[in-house]
């Protein structure tokens, strides 16, 4: 907020002084009314206007921006602001109408890795649970640069963010899934499984599990590409989320009766992997057992699917712990009606305890092409983490 602008604390003090309950209500003077309206208008952001300004920057050639002192860090900050605006589905769809979608997709080819990664994050937010924007991105050939970055970008963060965007783009999107398959997407996912980056592995496994669940006929492709053995290896990962995702993918293959994966999964190697996980679960402390609920269920289900018998976890009462099958409280239906129209990861704001004062300060400084708002200072912006 600009230092010479209207202060929120001053507005609060004014409001409290005129509504503390000690005095009867009175009519505002024309001067007070004008001051109050100016204070509110000074803090109101015209989102569509702001998105148009950001679009203008995205359309400006890099050399022109550089000549005006705009840095890659500034661009990343601008994209972070845009991401906040398009958390609203209406604003996400409006981005195309104001001409901002195509230049945003152009940033996926930017020479700066941080900009490529941040652009992929914005695309993820735009298309998440949004069929209209999924269609618009597909029509703008947005899948092509995302696939290119996913498969061959030298920066693993860019590859991971691009995979996340692809996952959101093709989810519940049959044309997107078809295009992903034709572009050898399954082969790229196999390569991702061989990465040493845990987050990259996890995102690949989650997308694989979704694709196999939605298209059981693809189990044969997964088997031919060697997915079963790779997922058996990852089922022993030290990362619990990777283990769960790998076990989930193996379970989808085990449930398919046409791909020939059952022959692979019935081998002694898988039985040994599951035995090792059972021993690991047996040795867990009570708190760790509770956190491993999904893994316990997956191990037991996979054993049953492959060997037609329950695992030893069931005999020891470790599949369902005491209290886990107790009735759950009724869902908070009314509460959801009052939530802001944000989606997925944006639904819960960060806690005040974990807030970063420097990051908060950074977000109040908008980036414009040319003179900015009064009191703004783009030199104070920091380079956000990717």
From TrEMBL:
GO terms for cellular component: endoplasmic reticulum. Keywords: Repeat. InterPro entries: ARM-like, ARM-type_fold, Hsp70_NEF-Inhibitors, Nucleotide_exch_fac_Fes1, TOG. PANTHER family: HSP70-BINDING PROTEIN 1 (PTHR19316:SF18), PROTEIN FOLDING REGULATOR (PTHR19316). Residues 318-386 are annotated as: Disordered. GO terms for molecular function: adenyl-nucleotide exchange factor activity. Residues 377-386 have a biased composition (Polar residues). Residues 46-291 form the TOG domain. This is TOG domain-containing protein.
């Amino acid at each position: 907020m600009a230092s010479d602008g209207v202060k929120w604390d001053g507005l609060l003090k004014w409001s409290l002084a005129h509504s503390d309950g000690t005095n009867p209500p009175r009519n505002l003077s024309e001067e007070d009314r004008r001051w109050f309206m100016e204070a509110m208008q000074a803090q109101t952001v015209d989102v569509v206007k702001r998105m148009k300004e950001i679009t203008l920057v995205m359309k400006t050639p890099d050399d022109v921006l550089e000549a005006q002192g705009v840095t890659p860090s500034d661009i990343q900050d601008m994209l972070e602001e845009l991401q906040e605006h398009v958390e609203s589905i209406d604003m996400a769809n409006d981005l195309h109408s104001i001409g901002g979608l195509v230049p945003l997709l152009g940033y996926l080819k930017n020479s700066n890795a941080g900009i490529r990664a941040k652009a992929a994050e914005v695309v993820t937010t735009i298309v998440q649970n949004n069929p209209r924007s999924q269609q618009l991105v597909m029509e703008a050939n947005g899948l092509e640069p995302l696939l290119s970055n996913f498969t061959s970008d030298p920066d693993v963060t860019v590859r991971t963010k691009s995979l996340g965007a692809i996952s959101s783009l093709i989810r519940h999107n049959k044309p997107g899934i078809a295009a992903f398959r034709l572009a050898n997407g399954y082969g790229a996912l196999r390569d991702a499984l061989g990465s040493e980056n845990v987050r990259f592995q996890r995102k690949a496994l989650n997308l694989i599990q979704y694709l196999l669940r939605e298209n059981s006929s693809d189990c044969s492709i997964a088997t031919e590409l060697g997915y079963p053995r790779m997922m058996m290896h990852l089922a022993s990962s030290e990362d619990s989320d990777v283990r769960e995702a790998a076990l989930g993918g193996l379970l989808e293959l085990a449930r398919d009766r046409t791909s020939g994966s059952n022959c692979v999964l019935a081998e002694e190697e898988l039985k040994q992997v599951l035995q090792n996980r059972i021993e690991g679960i047996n040795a867990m402390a009570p708190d760790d057992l509770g956190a491993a609920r999904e893994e316990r269920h997956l191990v037991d289900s996979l054993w049953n699917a492959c060997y037609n018998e329950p695992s030893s976890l069931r005999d020891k009462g470790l599949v369902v712990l005491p209290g886990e099958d107790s009735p759950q409280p009724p869902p908070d239906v009314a509460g959801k009606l009052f939530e802001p129209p944000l989606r997925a990861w944006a639904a819960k704001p960060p806690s005040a305890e974990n807030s970063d004062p420097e990051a908060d300060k950074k977000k109040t400084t908008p980036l414009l092409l040319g003179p900015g708002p009064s009191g703004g200072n783009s030199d104070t912006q920091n380079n956000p983490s990717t």
